[in-house]
Amino acid sequence: MNEEKKSKLKNIFEWVYCIIIAVILALFVRYYIGTPTLVKQTSMVPTFQPYNRLILNRLYRTFKTEPKRGEIITFEAPSVASEGEEVNLDNPVAVYNNEPQGVFSKFIYYVIELNKTSYIKRVIALPGEHIQIKDGKVYINGEELQEDYIPSDVITDAGRGGKYIDLTVPEGSVFVMGDNRENSGDSRMFGCIPYEKIEGKVVFRFWPLSEFGKV
Fold first, then answer.
1. Would you report the helix, strand and coil content of the chain in percent, each value rounded to 5?
2. Same domain, yes or no, for 59 and 154?
3. Residues 49 and 27 in one domain
4. Which of 17, 88, 102, 126 is deepest in the core (most CB within 10 A)?
5. What are phi and psi of 146, to 5 degrees?
């Protein structure tokens, strides 16, 4: 092999090496630090509109930070909803039956996030708190929750036939709802979200530019 061919091969290998390193770094940042995300549904209206683009802080997940009331989070979508079915209020935790099998499948699902559905909702109740939805309002430990982020005339009820409307939030999980209470599939339908299924916290909106800024 002459020197010119050797030089070309060396350049190709260097480019391949650089691309591999760049992909690994990008995946590392995306999974452990932060990533952009796109709002696709209307469940967080009026706070977020469809096609709003946000920055998701994944250090929140990396360092296992406990969620706070009022924070907006994304999480893996549960596989079962309670619409029209009996529920277990003694253990009101969302069900996940779609756990991928094998290292490669888990990498594709959790890191590349192919065929994975995520939801964006607001944290309403924390571990150990009793949440009750009645008379169009939300009550935490018997006290009405003040929700300045939604219009004053919004009525909160069982939503789409949800059964999880009077319960105590189990340890290691949170009760979440969308701000668009009439059009949100959330903890009222599928129960509380375990910490380990939380993907990150929404911290910034960069599109549209008219609403550019911290969330």
1. 25, 25, 45
2. yes
3. no
4. 126
5. -85, 120
Supply the range of the domain harboring residue 23. Answer: 1-32
Q: Give CA angle at 196 (195, 197), nearest 5°.
A: 90
Same domain flag for 63 and 1: no
Q: Would residue 214 be called left, alpha or beta, if left means φ above 0 and alpha means ψ between -120 and 50 degrees? A: beta
- The domain tally of the chain equals 2
**DSSP letters spanning 81-95:** --TTS---TTS-B--
Are 48 and 25 found together in one domain? Answer: no
The pTM assigned to this predicted structure is: 0.91
Whether 87 and 25 share a structural domain: no
Positions marked active-site: 43, 121
CATH code of the domain in which 103 resides: 2.10.109.10
Render the burial of 84-119: b for 16+ CB within 10 Å, e for the rest: eeebeeeebbbebeeeeeeeeeeeebeeeeeeeebb
Q: How far apart are the first and last CA of the chain?
A: 59
